[in-house]
Amino acid sequence: MSDRYPGYDVMTKRNGPSWNDVTRRVIDNRLATPKGPRFFSAAEFETVRSIADRIVPQRRHDPIPVTDFVEARLLSGQGDGFRQAGVPQAGEAWRKALAALDAEAQAAHGMPFRQLSGPERDGILHRMQNGDLHHSSWGGIPPATLFTQLVARDIVFAYYSHPTAWSEIGWGGPASPRGYVRTGYDRRDPWEAAEVKDGDDAAAIRKNRRVR
Amino acid sequence: MQTPRATGGRAPDVFTPGGWVPMREYDESEEVDFVIVGTGAGGGTLACKLAEAGFSVVAMDAGPFWRPLEDFASDEAEQSKLFWTDDRLVDGENPLQLGSNNSGKSVGGSTVHFAMVSLRFRPEWFKSRSKLGYGFDWPLDWREMWSYYREVEEALAISGPVNYPWGPPRPRYPYRAHKLNAAALALAEGCEAMGIPWTETPIATLSAPRGRARPCVYRGFCVLGCSTNAKQSALVTWIPRAIAAGAEIRDLAMVGRVEVDGRDRATGVHYHRGGEWRFQRARNVVVAGYAIETPRLLLNSANSRFPEGLANRSGLVGKYLTVQSNQAVWGISGKEIRSYKSPPSLALTEHWNYQDEGKDFHGGYCYMSQGPEPQLWANTQLASRGLWGEALIAEMQNYNHQVGLKMVGEMLPQERNAVTLADETDQYGLPIPRVTYSWCDNDRAMIGHALDFMGQALRATDARDIWKQTDDTCHLNGGARMGDDPQTSVVDADCRSWDIPNLWICDGSVFPTVGGVNPSLTIQAMACRTGDRIAAMARRGEL
C-alpha cells in the first residue's frame, strides 16, 4: 500500500499549541507502556500477538505494541460499560477465548493457534467472527460476540490509540487548545496532514515536514 | 480520580486550572430540603433551579468533579474516564451497547460528553397517542414546555439558525449559528438534492465568548469532553449557578439506597463516599440517575413496605425503557472532508419528524452529519461492517474522505424493554442492572425508511462506496414514566412519585415516549418546569 500522507508525523505537534499538558502526559504514559507479558501467561501473550498480527497487520520496523496495550487495558480493570448476559468480565473472557482458539486450532490443525500460518489463523478468526466455531471449550459463550465485542475490538482500539496509526490515516491528532480554522470541503490547516495529490509525493512531504 | 474534590467548603472552579470557588456545605444530620441523586441534564438543572428558589440542596454524583481545562486530554482512550463503565449486563433480541455514547459518570453527567444537539420536541409528540395514534400521551402541554425550552436555550446560549424550518414559530437562537464544516455541507447538499429543508443545528457550544467561557475552536472532540469550555454542559452552566446559589455538590458519592420510613416518606439516602457508607437526611429525595441507574436505585431500595422497589406500585419501574435508533449511511467523498474538525453534527434535517405522509411506520426521525474520531471509526468498520486485517487498514486510509449521515429515530415504548436487577454485584456490593432490549416491527420499518432515504441523499453528493450501518442505538429514556394515572405511570406531571409524596424523579427516565430528537433539551426543560412547580407548591404548603 502506498503512503497517502508521506512525511506526516503527528508527534511533530507534541510541543506545539495543539497539545495541552494533560494530553502530553497521557500520550507519554502510553508510549512508555511496559512490555508484557504482565496480564497473560507467556503462551497466552504469544497467542494474543498472533491474533493481533492478523487483525491489524503491520510491516513496520517499530511496530505498535498492540498486545502490551491490550494488557494495559485489562490491568486497569476498566470495562466497556456493558457485557452480554453469560459473558464473563473482560479478563476472564479473554482467557476463555484464547483457550477456545487453541482448542479449535488443535482440532483442525493439530497445533496451538499461535503456531498456525497466517491464512490458517485468518480462517479460524473468520469462523469465530461468523459464529461458526462449535468446540465445547467456548463454554456456551457465542464466539461471534467474543470476536466483535472483545478480542478484535480491544486489538483495534489498541492499534488506533497509537500516534503511528494516527499518522498513517492522516488524522490531525490532539487539538487542544489550538483546534482548527479551515473546515470546509478540501480545506486543510497548515498543521494538518497533507495527502498526495496527482502523484506528487514531494509536495506532500514538503507540507508535512512543516506541520508543527 | 479517586478522591473527592468538592470538600472543605470549596468546589473546583471549572474555569480556572487549579482554581476553587466557595461552596456551602450541609451537615449530614441536617435535614436538607432536597437531596438530588445525579447532576446531569435532569439533576444538575434541578439543583440550580431549587437552590436559586431558596431551598437547601445537596446534589450527589457517582463521578468526579472535573476541571475541563486541566483534566481533559485530546485522546479517545483517556477520555473514556467520562463514561459510566461499571459492570452492566445486556440481553434481549437487540442487546444495547452501553458506556461510551449513552452513559456518563461525572459531575454534569452525560452532558459532559454529549454531542450538544439541542432540539425541541415536535408539539404533537406530547400527545402522540391522542394526536398521532401511537405511544402514550405525556401529562404536559407543549406550549408550557416551549416556554421552558426557551429558558434552557438562553441558559445554554444555544447557537442556531435565525429561522427554524419546522414547527410553530420560535424565537431566533441566542447565539449565531456555527459555520458549516464539510460534513455538514454534504448533509445540506443531500437535502437540497432530495428537495427537503435542512438547517444549521441548534447546538450547545458557544459561537462567541460568554462570561469566562471562550467560543468553540472546532477541535472536534466534543463527545469526549470539551477541554476549552465552549461546550455548555451542566458542569459549566447549571452546576456553577447551583453552587453560587448555595447548593452543595458531593462528587464521587454513589447513592446505593433511598431510605423510607413507616409513614411512606423518604428520609434521606445512603451513599458511598471516601471509602465508607454514609447517610444524608433530607425532606425530599430526587432521583436523577438516568434511565438505567434511576430504576436500579429504586429497585435496590426495596423494603418491607415496598417489596417490589420504591415508587413501583404500578409495577412499571424499569419498564418501557426506550432508546433511539442511531443507524447511519457512510461513503467516501472525492473531496477531503476531515470530519474530525468541528462539532460532529453541525447540520441536520427534521423533515421526517414533521412529515407524516409517505411513511409506513409511526413516529419520526431526524438525521445529521457526523464526525467520528479514529478509534470509534475503526471500531465501526469492525463491528458494523466486519472489516479487519488488510481490509481494515486499507479502509482506514480513507478516513479523511469519509462522510456520513446518522439518524436519531423514535423507537416505540414496549413494556418488555426493561431494567431489572441481576444476581451479580458491583464494587459497592450493589446488585448490577440487567438491561433487556428488543426492537419491534415499527422500529425496523423506520430504520429501513431512514437508511433508504439517507442512502439516496448521500448518493446525491459525490460520495461512493456507500454502506449502511444497521446496528446502533443512542440515548436512554423511560423506565419510570410520567402520566396522569397512578396505575399506569410512576410519577405525575411534576415528576413527583405517586407512591411516596416526597420522592421525585427528574431525568430522561420519566419520558413516556422519546420522539425523534436528542433528549437533553427536553430533560433540562422538564427539570426547569419541575423546579418552578416545586417552588409554587412550597409557597402553597403542598410539599
Discrete helix count of chain B = 12
The H/E string of chain A reads HHHEHHHHH
- Terminal residue distance of chain A: 26 Å
Helix and strand content put the structural class of chain B at: alpha+beta
What percentage of the residues of chain A does DSSP assign to strands (E)? under 5%
Estimate nothing, just give the exact number of structural domains of chain B. Answer: 1
Please outline the helices and strands.
The complex is a heterodimer of chains A (212) and B (543).
Chain A: H1 21-31, H2 42-55, H3 66-76, E1 83-84, H4 90-109, H5 118-129, H6 143-159, H7 163-169, H8 201-209
Helix pairs in contact in A: 2-5, 3-6, 4-6, 5-6
Chain B: E1 10-12, E2 20-22, E3 32-37, H1 43-52, E4 57-60, H2 68-71, E5 89-91, H3 128-132, H4 142-155, H5 182-194, E6 199-200, H6 238-244, E7 248-250, E8 254-260, E9 266-273, E10 276-287, H7 290-300, E11 322-325, E12 328-332, E13 347-349, H8 351-354, E14 365-369, H9 374-383, H10 390-396, E15 402-410, E16 418-425, E17 431-436, H11 441-459, E18 464-469, E19 473-477, E20 503-505, H12 520-539
Helix pairs in contact in B: 1-6, 1-12, 4-12, 5-11
Structural key phrases:
heterodimer, A: 212 residues, mainly alpha, 2 domains, 8 helices, 48% helix, elongated, B: 543 residues, alpha+beta, FAD/NAD(P)-binding domain, 8-stranded antiparallel β-sheet, 7-stranded mixed β-sheet, 12 helices, 20 strands, globular
Structure description:
The complex is a heterodimer of chains A (212) and B (543). Chain A has 212 residues and is mainly α. Chain A has two domains: 1-18 and 175-212, no CATH class; 29-163, no CATH class. Chain A is 48% helix and 1% strand. Chain A contains eight helices and one strand. In chain A, helix 2 crosses helix 5 (118-129), helix 3 (66-76) crosses helix 6 and helix 4 (90-109) packs across helix 6 (143-159). Chain B has 543 residues and is of the alpha+beta class. Chain B has one domain (10-539): FAD/NAD(P)-binding domain (3-Layer(bba) Sandwich). Chain B has helices at residues 43-52, 68-71, 128-132, 142-155, 182-194, 238-244, 290-300, 351-354, 374-383, 390-396, 441-459, 520-539, and strands at residues 10-12, 20-22, 32-37, 57-60, 89-91, 199-200, 248-250, 254-260, 266-273, 276-287, 322-325, 328-332, 347-349, 365-369, 402-410, 418-425, 431-436, 464-469, 473-477, 503-505. In chain B, strand 9 (266-273) and strand 10 form a beta hairpin. The chains are: A mainly alpha (212), B alpha+beta (543).
